[in-house]
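Hi all, long-time lurker, first post. I run a small reading group and we've been trying to get comfortable going from sequence to structure in the token notation. Rather than ask abstract questions, I figured I'd post a concrete chain and ask someone more experienced to write out its structure so we can walk through it together at our next meeting. Sequence below, copied exactly:
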Amino acid sequence: MAAPASSGPPKKIVAPTVSQINAEYVTQLANKYWAPHVKKKLSFDSKVIEDVYTKEIVRSKFAIRKIMLLEFSQYLENYLWMNYSPEVSSKAYLMSICCMVNEKFRENVPAWETFKRKPEHFPFFFKCILEASLVENDSEYSLHEQTVLLLFLDHCFNSLEVDLIRGQVQQLISLPMWMALQPKRLEQELKKTPKLRKFWNLIKKNDEKMDEEARMQAYRERRFLSQLIQKFISVLKSIPVSGPISMDKVHYCERFIELMLDLEALLPTRRWFNTVLDDSHLVVHCYLSSLAKREKEGHLFCQLLDMLKFYTGFEINDQTGNALTENEMTTIHYDRITSLQRAAFAHFPELYDFALSNVAAVDTRDSLVKLFGPLSSNVLHQVASYLCLLPPLPAGEDSRCGKEFLLELLVSRHERRISQIQQLNQMPLYPTEKIIWDENIVPTEYYSGEGCLALPKLNLQFLTLHDYLLRNFNLFRLESTYEIRQDIEDSVSRMKPWLSEYGGVVFGGWARMAQPIVSFTVVEVAKPNIGENWPMRVRADVTINLNVRDNIKDEWEGLRKHDVCFLVTVRPTQPYGTKFDRRRPFVEQTGLVYVRGCEIQGMLDEKGRVIEEGPEPKPRLKGDCRTYRVFLDPNQYQQDMTNTIQNGAEDVYETFNIIMRRKPKENNFKIGIWKVCILSWCGLLMRYVCHPFVSMFGGMAVLETIRNLMNTDCVVPDWLHDIILGYGDPSSAHYSKMPNQIATLDFNDTFLSIDHLKASFPGYNIKVTVDNPVLQIPPFRITFPIKGGKGKKRKEDGNEEKPEEAKTLIVEPHVIPNRGPYPYNQPKRNTIQFTHTQIEAIRAGMQPGLTMVVGPPGTGKTDVAVQIISNLYHNFPEQRTLIVTHSNQALNQLFEKIMALDIDERHLLRLGHGEEELETEKDFSRYGRVNYVLARRLELLREVGRLQESLGVPGDVSYTCETAGHFFLYQVMSRWEEYISKVKIKGGKLPDVTDVSSFFPFHQYFANAPQPIFKGKSYEEDMEIAEGCFRHVKKIFTQLEEFRAFELLRSGLDRSKYLLVKEAKIIAMTCTHAALKRHDLVELGFKYDNILMEESAQILEIETFIPLLLQNPQDGFSRLKRWIMIGDHHQLPPVIKNMAFQKYSNMEQSLFTRFVRVGVPTVDLDAQGRARASLCNLYNWRYKNLGNLPHVQLLPEFRTANAGFLYDFQLINVEDFNGVGESEPNPYFYQNLGEAEYVVALFMYMCLLGYPADKISILTTYNGQKHLIRDVINQRCGNNPLIGRPNKVTTVDRFQGQQNDYILLSLVRTKAVGHLRDVRRLVVAMSRARLGLYIFARVSLFQNCFELTPAFSQLTARPLHLHIVPTECFPTARQNGERPSHQIHVIKNMPQMANFVYNMYMHMIQSTRHYQQRLLPPPAMIEEPETTQTQETEVEGEVQGMQEDAEEEENKVGEETIKEGELKVAEVDEHRTMPEHPGRDSDSGDSEPENETEK
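-- Answer (accepted) --
Happy to help. Here is the structure in token form:
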């Protein structure tokens, strides 16, 4: 459940423009005191801080715009913290720092770096914050200011990975904080855990040794949270039930509950704090408060409170951190009730009935209220006191607690806990209209990061696997619901439902993703399973008329099993022809009434049977009517039918008139994840995780699944469990600490030579087992010194290993056995000279445990991954490796490189629907592999026939695999054994070398091999050749034996299943496919030993977790031995469309990133081979010691200059064009016409110089600009054969993982930096180019951004006007950095460049005397005649003779000229139909093909 802050829906925060920034008082101060570009600054004056806080922050009521301005000006870095000390500390100083830190967290930029650089005063500062948070007097610190302090503290508690912060926070949340407990409760807690009493006594002894001042300070810190709770309760009680209310109090209460939630949701903070929170009875006070009873103002507060109540009673042992089973939770509940019954029996006669009743009769809320309600406040207080819930009541005094509070305290503590399994069992799978359009559940408005939300957060740590899945489940559910709403609104509004003249529905439009329903019939409602009250399954038939274009018809007919669709009922009230207004509520306009989800089983054939998927072609159906069999959600169906029967409501299932499909990936994946999370959550309530993906074929038979789960042990390997939760030693799963690490590994073809091997292990002594340098050739086996699991070296024979032995590697060269006489028998070899860090990554990946490889751009991540896979394949042939990536593109790149290595292709399998994109003629899909096996079987049987013929054996032995097996056993083996007996060494005497050839029985068979087969030089060499020939023959029969099952299995489906489970050794799939097919894979008995994940930093937490669960455990343990994760957390994270989930819940954090934050050891690849060294410098500051491979300095393409340019990279300043910089025709759809024209002009210039168009890509940071650039290209040069189109015009986000030689980058924004402030996006943008990068931007905006400084300081060191050498053609012989011999021209603005390119083109036409397509005149030639005239005069000196030719041509094309203003209007009109989704100024939601051109 989510809701925006109580002050109403959040609005988009408009960032100040550059001109506004310059006019601000803050900017004037910054230019005097702290602006980074000012050289002579005034000395520090604390009065400035007072003035800024009073006049700019407080007076504006903490306006985000003012705080943004201050933070962006580097106020915190260059003035506040730099000059902070106890002597100058003040309220304004403290509050200013807190506001800046909070703003950095709101903007998602690093907040603690400044403090780390100067940490000495942080403890004093933190102590001041604690004291200020407890101030009771509002005149000293207002409630708004205290809310700011609460938010700062919350950020501190959520930054425990920062040593500086952790050192201060730990003092507040350690065991001594139990000092705040009432004495009886403290004694009760210490009795439960005897160990704690020892610690407690030790704490008291240490306190006695402290001096008075230190002891008082320690006491204040220990009681801080307890006192903060009491202060909150006093604020809460001051809120009236009705009448006017201070929203500052409401916001304070909301932020406080958020802080409590975050403390409860982390084990390090929860361990001791949960008892203190329970002792304060905070949850009871909150539920009884006036704020909770105020429906409007208290809505968010109540939602947060529900979450807090859940976490206070979470199924975990606070001290040990162990998850509690359902039985243990029941035992705790029974202990509490029986404890209360014993107290009642012994001390309260009026409660005898309660004391003597069985637990089940008295543990419901109603029965407890009935029994305890008649008691007086004093008696209730005494009962609570006896249970150590309240301090004893003094003799003769009445209780100060209200009766309502006392009753709620006892009832809420002892009422029966509602089973979460039961709740989940009855939970509908798909969202309905009530959830989809509930703004409190799914936030839609732009989320600025300012307010508080009732959403779970994905931080560093989780309490248990249950908690881990629960948070991901809630967020995925809401995120998918948000996307479903967008899809429904888009499709239904396109269909234009109107009210017909006869009262029915008529559709005035059409939608690609939705169709009107012709008929809908429920065809099966199966009986419920035992113990359930919902049907086992519900099936229906949906008929639609596909009178649409063939490609759309194919899409509908291509709906696959498990695809999810939505059934919609609309009853429009608008008459025919009414225009839809997107600003008005969608539901009201369209008359939408119901939405229900369903899952496709399949399309029906003409006989009404479901058409099954398989290799066989689908039958062609006549006409346009198509009927689909779908599974409905049984839980939802049961609820709807109950509502119809009991309340007389209409039958929802007789009303549907639209069916909507979704794009397959977002459709199935989100819903698939939802299923996984629901059922995994259910299972984990029983402390087990397995079998979480359930197909709708079984309906939602949740109880049956749970029964299976209860008998299944946890499948997460023990060595991974704590790391996934974020606890324990983060390096415990590193291979060096694994108890089963392997001493000797065969590196196969990893090393190119012995010198390469020695260079790969710096600091090690290399001991080769053979001294002859000629024999020191790869492949090598290496024996490593082994350390024990706890880091201590193993002792042999009681003697410790010597230090030099610990650094010695024993290298054994070995020869790969001869595989046969044919050229294709020779093994494929690796040709890459891996660096020593790449070798360390390969070594780690071959060892058991968790391997994390951080791969900066161009460092060969894919090559490392492929070599790991190859080495695992050869070292452990019995093991199976699962490859998982985020995208099909990455998986295909990986797969294509795997196919180039020495891996038998019969062991490769590619699952999913991306295999079509593989750039190979071979089909590696399941059915493609089945066809390959069948074809290979026939091919091998023909070889058996040829062998039979060569041996003169009668009969048909090559008919089946079985007969071939007999032939091998009785004919081939006998001949081979006879041959060996003749040529083997007898009595130590070598046979004659000619005997090896003369007795060889298979000469005739190998007659088609290169001759002669035998060299006749030595006995050993010829015997190795003979054995190689026999290995070739034997391999034929080994493969046939493996293929024998394909003769017994007749259907393609059975054969494909066998291939997956038995034959394939390397199985590749996307994380989407893993989520979709999890149930099928587990049911098949799919097994694997190793997982390798590429693009790990782009995969969401839950997407990364699911591949661990694709197999059932063996004997209660997972067989998973290795988990290799390769990624780059410094590049862009997973895509989250909803800003609330992205910013507030941190849902974009990948598991890879979280592991890095926790401190899991990583191998950081440190040499890139993609870009020039100068280009690499623009982003290598973000990585640890990222350098360049030698070829970057040596190869000609890197040493040669970029023809026509003075620089290999340049930042080009673009001012307003026609008085306009960035524009926003639709919300978040940013465009900049000046930059678009400039980028296209430079592209045309490059093509005219001879650059291949496909070597140039144009990138931008916004979707709107991407569309605008495509439009400009279409108008200017798209269809011109002399120029053409660039390789791609797309966004930075979508170009991640790709590269090109030359990148032209448009940053678009001129008013605010926008999302480029995320350094990860900057890294991606800077690292796409190999040879040339030209960036178009408003320099004055970007150069002041603190986060971008390392890159922009290099960019601004070069001239900000484009420097070109137009008479230098591509390619050039000039060296990079060398001054050109040709004249250099400086382009000052876009109109000048456009005009220059126009004249250059016209000159080229005339000089080549060819008729070419004419260009549109450049923008300045029409719109700015005066400027154009001046520029034309300049250009005359630059390109002689062009102008006259241009004018002549211009007269010819005058009629074709389109005015620039008209072009722009056309663009804006077109883009009104392409809005960006609300709250997202990124391009991540764009899923169109990248090479698609907007016409």
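A couple of things your group might point at:
Confidence is low (pLDDT under 50) at residues 1-11, 673-713, 790-799, 1421-1495.
The two ends are 42 Å apart (CA to CA).
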